[in-house]
Specification:
There is one protein chain. With 133 residues, this protein is α+β, with helices and mostly antiparallel strands. The protein has one domain: Thiol Ester Dehydrase, Chain A (Roll). It contains three helices and six strands; from the N terminus they run βααβββββα. Strands 1, 2, 3, 4, 5 and 6 form a six-stranded antiparallel beta sheet that branches. β4 and β5 form a beta hairpin. The chain is elongated and about 45 Å long. The mean pLDDT is 95.
Length: 133
């Protein structure tokens, strides 16, 4: 059993669906990004404040495996856990349809920190995530 450390419940909006009536694939990246941002906020982080300090977390790579489509009005739960691999923070993000807990998407998002314009370790993230990495 995966030990998720954060989850966020969201709902599909009509305009996120394509002609087939299912969520367009690009919107899943938005869902995952919103989940990571809310996770950071829940840990006491603030993207705007970090940027003001010259710290910019950026996505280096994303892998998404689509399992079951979501449709307009579906509620879903976006869950994540995090690991540290070298200089990277790797977010394992899974999305489940809320009604039946069916897996919708399995995602892996590799992020790095750019500090004052240079790829670097980030002491702030080490402190924020110390209980999870």
């Amino acid at each position: 059993m995966t030990k998720y450390i954060y989850e966020l419940t969201l709902k599909v909006r009509d305009y996120e669906c394509d002609l087939q009536g299912i969520v367009n694939n690009a919107n899943y990246q938005h869902y995952m990004e919103h989940t990571r941002h809310e996770f950071l906020t829940s840990m006491g982080g603030d993207f705007a404040a970090l940027h003001q300090q010259g710290i910019d977390p950026v996505v280096a790579r994303i892998n998404m495996a689509f399992k079951t489509p979501l449709k307009s009005g579906d509620e879903f739960i976006s869950r994540l856990y995090i690991k540290k691999e070298g200089i990277k923070y790797v977010f394992y993000q899974d999305i489940f349809r809320k009604a039946d807990e069916k897996i919708v998407l399995k995602g892996i998002v590799e992020t790095v920190c750019v500090v004052n314009g240079r790829l670097s370790e980030c002491a702030i993230f080490e402190e924020l995530f110390k209980d999870y990495i």
